[in-house]
Amino acid sequence: MSTQRSYTSDLDLLKGKVEMVHGSGGKAMAQLIDQLFLQAFSNPYLDQLNDQASFNLPPGKVVMATDSHVISPLFFPGGDIGALSVHGTVNDVAMSGAVPKHLSAGFILEEGFPLADLKRIVDSMAAAAEEAGVSIVTGDTKVVERGKGDGCFINTTGIGVVPDGIELGGDRVKPGDKIIVSGSLGDHGVAIMSLRENLTFETTIESDSQSLHDLVATMVEAVPELHCLRDPTRGGISATLNEIAQQAGAGMQIYEEAILVKPQVKAACEFLGLDPLFVANEGKLVAFCPADKAEHLVEVMRSHPKGAEAAIIGEVTEDSLNFVQMQTAFGGNRMVDWINGEQLPRIC
Amino acid sequence: MSTQRSYTSDLDLLKGKVEMVHGSGGKAMAQLIDQLFLQAFSNPYLDQLNDQASFNLPPGKVVMATDSHVISPLFFPGGDIGALSVHGTVNDVAMSGAVPKHLSAGFILEEGFPLADLKRIVDSMAAAAEEAGVSIVTGDTKVVERGKGDGCFINTTGIGVVPDGIELGGDRVKPGDKIIVSGSLGDHGVAIMSLRENLTFETTIESDSQSLHDLVATMVEAVPELHCLRDPTRGGISATLNEIAQQAGAGMQIYEEAILVKPQVKAACEFLGLDPLFVANEGKLVAFCPADKAEHLVEVMRSHPKGAEAAIIGEVTEDSLNFVQMQTAFGGNRMVDWINGEQLPRIC
Q: What residues does the PurM-like C-terminal domain cover (chains A, B) (predicted)?
């Protein structure tokens, strides 16, 4: 830490609250930055205390992704808004095949938010960033009056660099491609909804919130011919498949029996009236892969802890209407349309 | 626009409102993206509709800056949150000497926010981005329930590339450097406060909100030996000078008579009990320049419309206590300390 600034008293991280003055650009804001953010995130870029970070990047295509996080509640089984805000953006960067490098963090805090909660969130972000191999290089803090926010919103924006020879995108997906999912579906959304609805099950349903940078690195190294990766967050795998079908100008056929949903997630979905295909995930990916490489890719994914339950769940079809269809466990075929109504608000 | 997605009816941009479903990852969100954001921001990176943008950057040091904008009210004389969110981040990137290249945009919308207002904001962002020569390459939209936000918050994160041979930073500032300001101080903060307090003057006080990328490019080309640039936003020039004094391990001496404050801004400040040195600016910069290049730099700045009123306002001094002092119009010297209390909440 390069900072030498001195304050008359330390920030009260036990009982203190966020005040309007913490966003006003004066000494109180500087203290919040020094004693909370810099303590947790310290790295050579951030510690320069300029209004921007500067760094060199390895040669290659640069990738940029942004996500504002407004999840409610802020703390949940398997994670919190801090870790989630790192995982979400790291994953968006990684889905291009890129190695995530740096994150920015923008906080919008509500007056009265406990500093102890903020510290917990910030420490969780720092740990998630370290695990994902990214530095939080620049940041910003704003404070809004009580009733004009909801505790803590966090925007993270990430940049990364794509290794030579990798080119992924929805428009590269072709009829015949196999659709592979890295694990069970619906965990994150159901964990949050169960918490909101005060549902208890024999075992607590945990969010799958995690960074997939290392799984992706393993996959693109093994099968650089991969066509597309996408993380099925808001809107679940249904939104992802419909989006890609339209980008690719193709259809999708998936098989219900091939899709892994944990028994307690299935039970909670039935209770809550949710369809696991529409429920957000925060630590899973969908891969679109040329058919002749698909088995090998699944094998490679299964050798990685974050892809241990990877499976082929269907294939891309010729379909000018870009329909996504699912063969059900009973043998019928049903449309998997986009959700039209609100299913899960503030899930990330 | 590459999108071919079809909807049963168009978004009602006259009377429609933001609904929770616009943030849920389904069809309504896709429609908002297609018919509002893509229409305004269209560029080859964004139009790929991936969850991240990818692009090549020219060689050189990469710079990243982030800002969340929570200004209230959203529309004000001389600008709005849309243009401001571009200017703020473009300026943070430019203050490193970099050429700003790309922006991300993250929206946090409150349920019930008029789509017509959102369109006005988005169109204003698009125009500001075009003027600044940047593309909005990736984005994100979240919606929170009524009473959990305040209409519209916007995070922008920008990246740019520093031309060869330029290296700016607070730690490069040296005793003897001249302190140069690009124009009048206090316009933005006073415009917002006058609006909030319903003050009217003979002439409307307008925000100075503008991108300084072109002024900066002119400056670093003419005087690459420049030590540091900073835009005096929240906390005003007082916060900027105190921050840099601490980064440089030096003091600052400024001269009240050299500092330009417009008469109506001065009058409003007296009425509102504000000190123009503590009031936010959104289109001005402070430069720290070796003394032997300072006159030339001021001349160069004055040749540019955004620096027409540039002036030397003081110099960096040897001072281990890092005090910022101002010689007043009456000849005395007073401390220019950081603000400790809240002066202007939600000014950007």
A: 174-322
Q: Give the nearest chain A residue to B107 (CA atoms).
A: A68
What residues in B contact A98, CB-CB < 8 Å?
52, 54
Question: What's the CATH code of the domain at B263?
Answer: 3.90.650.10
Question: In chain A, which among 116-135 make CB contacts under 8 A with chain B?
Answer: none
User: Å from B298 to nearest chain A CA?
Assistant: 23
B98 touches chain A (CB under 8 A): yes
Summarised one tens digit per residue, pLDDT across range B129-150 is 999 999 999 999 999 999 999 9
Say yes or no for a CB contact (<8 Å) between A61 and B55: yes
Residues A156 and A200 in one domain: no
CB–CB of A26 and B54 under 8 A?
A: no
CATH code (residue A30): 3.30.1330.10
Positions of chain A with pLDDT lower than 50, given as ranges: 1-3
The tally of domains found in chain A comes to 2
Residue B9 belongs to a domain:
no
Same domain, B183 and B288: yes
Using a CB–CB cutoff of 8 Å, tell me whether A279 touches chain B.
no
| Chain B residues inside the 8 Å CB shell of A231 | 51
In a domain, B2, yes or no: no
In chain A, residues with a C-beta closer than 8 Å to the C-beta of B49 are 170, 243, 247
- Give domain status of residue B66, yes or no: yes
Domain check: are A215 and A129 in the same one?
Answer: no
B178 shares contact with chain A (CB less than 8 Å): no
Residue whose structure tokens are 């969110």:
B85
Q: Of A124, A145, A162, which residue constitutes the final position of a domain?
A: A162
Contact indicator for A267, A190 with CB cutoff of 8 Å: no
Both A203 and A300 in one domain: the answer is: yes
Mark whether B153 and B65 lie in a shared domain: yes
Give the residue from B162, B195, B213 where a domain finishes: B162
- Chain A residue numbers with beta carbons less than 8 Å from the beta carbon of B143 are 345
Length of chain A: 348
Q: Is the Cβ pair A62, B54 closer than 8 Å?
A: yes
- Kindly determine whether residue A30 and residue B243, on different chains, have CB atoms separated by under 8 Å: yes
* A148 in contact with B, Cβ within 8 Å: yes
Alpha-helix residue ranges (DSSP H) falling in B155-235: 187-196, 213-222
- For B315, residues 6+ apart whose C-beta sits below 8 A from its C-beta are B176, B177, B178, B179, B252, B253, B291
B24 in any annotated domain: yes
Mind listing the pLDDT tens digit of every residue in chain B (348 residues)?
344 577 888 999 999 999 999 998 888 899 999 999 999 999 999 988 888 999 999 999 999 999 999 999 999 999 999 999 999 999 999 999 999 999 999 999 999 999 999 999 999 999 999 999 999 999 999 999 999 999 999 999 999 999 999 999 999 999 999 999 999 999 999 999 999 988 877 788 999 999 999 999 999 999 999 999 999 999 999 999 999 999 999 999 999 999 999 999 999 999 999 999 999 999 999 999 999 999 999 999 999 999 999 999 999 999 999 999 999 999 899 999 887 665 788 999
Q: What is the three-class DSSP state of A216?
A: helix
User: B45 to chain A nearest CA, in Å?
Assistant: 10
Give how far Cα B33 sits from Cα of A251, B38, B42, B46, B303, Å: 22, 6, 11, 11, 41
Give the structural domain span for B148.
Answer: 20-162
| Cα separation, B109 vs B142, whole angstroms | 6
Structure tokens belonging to residue A266: 């299935």
What ipTM describes this predicted complex? 0.96
pLDDT tens for B102-124 read 999 999 999 999 999 999 999 99
Q: Percent of chain B, pLDDT > 70?
A: 97
Contact A155 B25 (CB under 8 A): no
What CA–CA distance (Å, rounded) separates B287 from B296?
Answer: 13
Pair of tokens at residue B318: 């040897």
Structure tokens at A263: 């028994």
